[in-house]
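sry for the spam today, last one i promise. C-alpha cells for design, 207 residues
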C-alpha cells in the first residue's frame, strides 16, 4: 500500500516539473504587436487658380491707337467716352511739327491699312451734309476743330463731338470708324474735306 502511494507521488512530481519547465522565464514571446496607427498631418487645400481680369474696355468707352504714315513720326493714344449728346475724346498726340495746325476728323471706315490711309474713306457724314466748321449748323458729324500743336510738337485733346454716339449700333455710332489727322489745317469751307492735305496718321475707334 505504501509502495503504491509513493508511485503516485513520483508521477505527480514529474508532471509538475514538466509544467514548470514549459514556462521558463528565458522563453521569449515571438508574438509581434500591431504597429500603432500614424497620425496623418493635415494637408492644406490647393489655392484656387489665378484668373486674369478681362481686358475689355467698359461699355460706352473706346480707344484709338494712332499709327503714322511712312515718312512721319506721329503717335498717340486717345480715349473716347459716351456722354449725353455726344462723345468725349481725350489724349495726347506727339510727333507733330511745333506751332502747326492740322485737320482732324472722324472718317467713315475703320480701316487704316492703306499706306496713304485712303482706306478710311471720307468724313463720317450720316446726315449727308456739307463739310464745315463744327460750331456751325452745317458740318459733317465727323468734323472737329483743328489740332493746335504746342512748341514741343504735341497736341492735347479734350473735346466733345456732339451729335454722335458710341457703341449703340445706331446711324450716328462712331464705333469701329477711324480718326484721321491731316498734314495741313482745315479751312472749313472747301468741299468735301476742307482742303487739309494728305493723311499723316490714322487709328481705328475700337474696344
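last one done:
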Amino acid at each position: 500500500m505504501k509502495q503504491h502511494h509513493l508511485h503516485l507521488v513520483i508521477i505527480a512530481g514529474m508532471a509538475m516539473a514538466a509544467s514548470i519547465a514549459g514556462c521558463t522565464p528565458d522563453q521569449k514571446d515571438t508574438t509581434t504587436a500591431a504597429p500603432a496607427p500614424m497620425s496623418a498631418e493635415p494637408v492644406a487645400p490647393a489655392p484656387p487658380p489665378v484668373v486674369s481680369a478681362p481686358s475689355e474696355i467698359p461699355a460706352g468707352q473706346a480707344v484709338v491707337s494712332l499709327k503714322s504714315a511712312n515718312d512721319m513720326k506721329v503717335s498717340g493714344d486717345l480715349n473716347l467716352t459716351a456722354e449725353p449728346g455726344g462723345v468725349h475724346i481725350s489724349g495726347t498726340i506727339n510727333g507733330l511739327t511745333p506751332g502747326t495746325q492740322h485737320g482732324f476728323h472722324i472718317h467713315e471706315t475703320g480701316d487704316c491699312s492703306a499706306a496713304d490711309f485712303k482706306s478710311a474713306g471720307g468724313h463720317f457724314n450720316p446726315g449727308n451734309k456739307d463739310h464745315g466748321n463744327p460750331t456751325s449748323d452745317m458740318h459733317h458729324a465727323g468734323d472737329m476743330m483743328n489740332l493746335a500743336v504746342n512748341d514741343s510738337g504735341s497736341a492735347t485733346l479734350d473735346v466733345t463731338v456732339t451729335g454722335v454716339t458710341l457703341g449703340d449700333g445706331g446711324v450716328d455710332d462712331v464705333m469701329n470708324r477711324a480718326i484721321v489727322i491731316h498734314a495741313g489745317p482745315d479751312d472749313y469751307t472747301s468741299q468735301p474735306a476742307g482742303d487739309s492735305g494728305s493723311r499723316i496718321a490714322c487709328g481705328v475707334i475700337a474696344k
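Residues 1-13, 15-30, 50-54 have pLDDT under 50 and may be disordered. ok im logging off now
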